[in-house]
Fold this sequence. Notes:
The complex is a heterotrimer.
Chain A: H1 4-15, H2 18-43, H3 48-63, H4 66-76, H5 81-85, H6 89-92, H7 95-120, H8 124-132, H9 137-167, H10 179-190, H11 193-222, H12 224-227
Helix pairs in contact in A: 1-10, 1-11, 2-3, 2-7, 2-9, 3-7, 4-7, 7-9, 9-11, 10-11
Chain B: E1 16-27, E2 30-41, E3 45-50, H1 56-63, E4 71-76, E5 79-80, E6 83-84, E7 91-92, H2 95-102, E8 105-108, H3 120-130, H4 136-149, H5 165-178, E9 183-187, H6 195-210, E10 214-218, H7 222-228, E11 231-236, E12 239-244, H8 246-251, H9 256-267
Parallel strand pairs in B: 3-10, 3-11, 8-9, 9-10
Antiparallel strand pairs in B: 1-2, 1-4, 4-5, 6-7, 11-12
Chain C: H1 5-9, H2 17-49, H3 54-69, H4 72-93, H5 104-129, H6 133-141, H7 146-176, H8 188-199, H9 202-235
Amino acid sequence: MIDWSFLIEVLQKLLAGLPLTLQLTGFSLLIGFILAVIVAAAAASRIRVFRWVANCHVELFRGTPLLVQIFLIYYGLGQIPELRQSFLWPFLREPYWCAVLALALNTSAYTAEIIRGAVQAVPAGEIEAARACGMSGFLLRRRIIWPIALRQGLPVYGSEIILMIKGTSLASIITLNEVTGIAYKLISSTYRIFEVFIVTGALYLLVTALTGLAISLIERRLNVHHAYRRT
Amino acid sequence: MTAVIRSVTNASPVNQAISVQGLHKFYGSFEVLKGINFDAAEGEVISILGASGSGKSTFLRCLNLLEMPSAGHLRIFGEQVNLKPGEVNLRIGDRKQIDRLRTQVAMVFQNFCLWSHMTILQNLIEAPVHVQRRNKAEVREEAEAMLERVGLQDRANYYPAQLSGGQQQRAAIARALVMKPRVLLFDEPTSALDPELVGEVLKVMRDLAAEGRTMLIVTHEMAFARDVSSRILFLEKGQVGAEGSPSELFGGGVSERFDQFVSRFNEG
Amino acid sequence: MTMGITELLGFGPQGWGMPLLSAAGITLVAATGGFLVGSLLGLCGAALKLSRTPALRWIGNFYTTFFRGIPEILIVYLFYFGGSVVLTKIMNLGGLPGFFSLPALLIGVLAIGVVSGAYQTEAYRTAFMRLDRGQLEAGSACGMSRFLLLRRIIAPQTLRFALPALGNIWQSVLKETALLSVIGLTELLRQAGTAAGSTREPLLFYGVAAVMFLVIGRITGFFIARTEKHLAKAWSR
């Protein structure tokens, strides 16, 4: 009753798109994280202009749909003559880099908020104890604030990674052939919507579940100081 | 060492550990510290007593600038602390000076404040190695010795969350000691502990006092303060209410407010 | 540029102001519809997940895991293609030949509803678990019937606890309506795209669309926050 051969065929075709999905996710997360650190630093700066720009960035990319952001970059940037003539143009006219840019900017806004929350969650007492020992500046951040903030922020960032994996599906709308793009082609050519949907859904769930597992393992490793019972 | 004088001390500036003049502190429009003059000489053990809201913790935290005073002068080991005027409170004038002085003025907190992502041993060697730039192997040895001294040699590789409150506080004291400080500040060290764990911490503190260390202790432990201190400082509503040796003040008759304070405390 | 920006965005015969505004209206309708469908599904899902029957709990868990783990666009495709497949079969069986498809707005509301329902399930479930059992016991002890208990105590308090999460879900739903442009619904993004293509001003129109999403989000967010504050003040100790 279940056409296993078709399902397997679908899976094979989808898997061809998986590397692209993972690449898009990986690049955007990497670039997005670096941007997020800059934005978070600016948001915490004493200079009012920096704070304002950072807050605008976060508001813009969290308050508008990802698809709008993708379209703005893919269709909109080409309208600017200065950009068309710059060295960036070979990149910016490719859907691949437009997608990466849009995804990176999007995740940078959410990640900046995650970083802010994580740093805020570092217990004030532990920071004070470090100051009282004469720690300040970069040393204080490197040895005390950032390690603790990392542990605080990791679970939420794990969710963000999963949201990014789902976000790459929109790249199909600007012609990229990642998993969802291939699924769409299969659906519109075979009209066997339910079977294709189940396989595609299962594939995404698998990727998401594995990612979640990896994050849990890292969390467990970092939080070994919470693992034991009290003596 | 038995100064009976109310405010200005006779100790010469040379062996004054900490000296404040005209210390004021505002929280918004509320004045917590209303002009305190105080000197602590080296080797003294000074207990700072007072009702809650009297400003004793704020006072102590101004001494290592974890709280910024609104006005006043601060000298540590004879060195004038560089403070600049700011919007509301004073600001740190010389970051490096503060960091350096803080390595010589160690603090023990009410909530222990051990660094949760490090083992006890790592907690102890962290500041000596990274702030004081001492040799790691040497510091390790000293840290292990200090842990033995406070009775935690078996817990060196445990994390703070795995220790009881009393153990954590003893570890925090050990952490302060490994810095080789000239002054120890204690901010209500036993207030967050279950009663049965208080004793082990007080014992460690008694030993330190007996060694001749310079200690400033904000505490509610009256009996301890009476036994161990060389001087009592009683703060009342942000000002020095009374000052003197334990025998004087606890003997009664020197300050009416202090007598009221003690009797109210004993009733409870 | 043959026309100024004010003309392009204005309400004159060449202006896109009116179409954009009415498209924004469609966006709001789709979002509201989707959110309401999601509320219904969310309540059912929460009930399933809180049930004492393992099989029911399993169904609830499957629902939330599946529809939160898959890209939303896939679910839009599911309802779009699947809906037309099913409808065509039904119509053909009923004797009407040809190809049938559901209206895009309906598809959109259903797709967004199903996804939002998975998130709302979690919102209601965690909110319910925060209820003070003591208050429920006090109600029972007074002789309140289970229905009365539900209506007067459980529902209002669960709603209050769930409100912050629901507010976030609403903002997500609002942004998800943009996906419906792909299936031909003339909501804000699609209308902006049409305008952009026709006037060759993508930066302007997609920019305006972005701003409009921001504004709608801000305004609705403001009212939600006010409700949150009002409830918190009225019902906190």
